[in-house]
Amino acid sequence: MPDIHLLHALILGFIEGLTEFLPISSTGHLILLGNWIGFQSSDGKVFEVVIQLGAILAVCWLYRARLVQLIRGVFQGDADERRFAGTVLLAFLPAALIGAVMIGFIKTYLFSPVIVAASLILGGLILLWVESRNIEPSMETMEEITWRKALLVGFAQCAAMIPGVSRSGATIVGGLYAGMSRKTAAEFSFFLAMPTMFGAAAYDVMRNRHLLSNDEWTTIAVGFVAAFISALIVVRMLIKFVASHSFRVFAWYRIALGLLVLAWLATRAG
Predict the structure, then answer these.
(1) Which of 74, 138, 141, 172 has the most CB within a 10 Å radius?
(2) 78-124: pLDDT as tens digits
C-alpha cells in the first residue's frame, strides 16, 4: 500500500476525531477532505463509518467511571440508572430503525460535496435560530431527561443521516430545543453516540466485509487510532467551552464552510 494512502488515512482520522463531537459534521468533513485529496475508500464507504469508533471509544474512556456506574446500576436494579439507560436507548431507536432502511440510498445518492455544503449552511442557520430563542434550561443533568424529551432528541438525530447535518449537531440542537442546558445536551449527545455509532459500524462491516482487503483494514486501523487520540483532546475542550459559551461560533463556521465549498464547486464546474 502506498505510504501516501496511509498518510491520507491518518489525516482523515485526525479530522474525524476533531469534528465528531462538534456540531459541524464529521462525515461532511471526511467527504469534503477525501474528495479534495483524492482519497478513495471502499465502495461501501466503510472507512468513513468505522473510524468513528475511534472517536466513540475516546468518549467511553473519558466517561468510563460514569459508564461503570451506569452498567452496575442497571444490573443491580437501581431505578435511576435503569431510567437513564432507558432514555438513551429510546433516543437511539428512531435512527436505528430508519438507518437500517435508508443506509443504501444515503450512501449512493447523498455522499456528495453539494449535499454536504447545503446541509452545513442549513444546519448552521437552524443552530443560530435555536440559540436566538434563549430557551431557559429545565434539565441541568442527564438524569433529569424525560422519556418524551429523549425521544425528541432521537428523532432529531435522524436528520444527521444526511451528510453535513452532523450527528452531534442534530442531537445538541434537539437537546437545546427540548430544554437541556448546553452541557447536558452535549453530554447526552456523547452517550447517545455510543449505541448509535457502535451499531452503525457493526452493521456496515457486516454488510461490506467482502469489500475489505488487508490493505483496507490497515487503512481503517490508522484512521481509527488517529480519531481516538484527537477525540480525547476535543471532548475535554468542548465540555469546558460550552460551560460559558454558546454554539453560535460553530453555526457561523458551518455557514462559512458551506458557502466556501459551493464557491469552490462553482469554479470547478466553470
Answers:
(1) 172
(2) 999 999 999 999 999 999 898 888 877 887 788 888 999 999 999 99
Q: Which three cell numbers stand for residue 69?
A: 456506574
CA nearest neighbour of 144 among 90, 95, 188: 188
- The answer to whether 152 touches 192, Cβ cutoff 8 Å, is no
Q: Which three cell numbers stand for residue 133?
A: 430563542
Alpha carbon distance 226, 247 (integer Å): 25
- Cell numbers linked to 66: 460514569
Q: What single letter denotes the amino acid at residue 68?
A: V
Q: Distance between alpha carbon 252 and the CA centroid of its chain, in Å?
A: 18
User: DSSP 3-state assignment of 139?
Assistant: strand
Closest CA to 17 of 81, 75, 82, 61: 61
What pTM did the predictor assign?
0.84
Look at residue 262 and give its three-state secondary structure.
Answer: helix
Nearest to 26, CA basis, from 220, 153, 165:
165
Beta pairing partners, 180: 139
**Which residues are registered as beta bridge partners of 139?**
180
18-49: b (≥16 Cβ within 10 Å) or e: bbbbbbbbbbbbbbbbbbeeebebbebbbbbb
- Measured over the CA atoms of residue 83, residue 88, residue 91 and residue 97, the dihedral's sign is negative
Tell me, rounded to whole angstroms, the distance of Cα 40 from its chain centroid: 21
The Cα–Cα gap between 59 and 64 comes to 8
For the chain, the average pLDDT equals: 88
Q: Return the C-alpha cell found at 182.
A: 448546553
For 233-263, how does the pLDDT look when each residue is reduced to its tens digit (9 = 90+)? 999 898 888 878 889 999 999 999 999 999 9
- Residues 6 or more apart whose CB falls under 8 angstroms from that of 93 comprise 154
- How far is 260 from 240, CA to CA, in rounded Å? 29
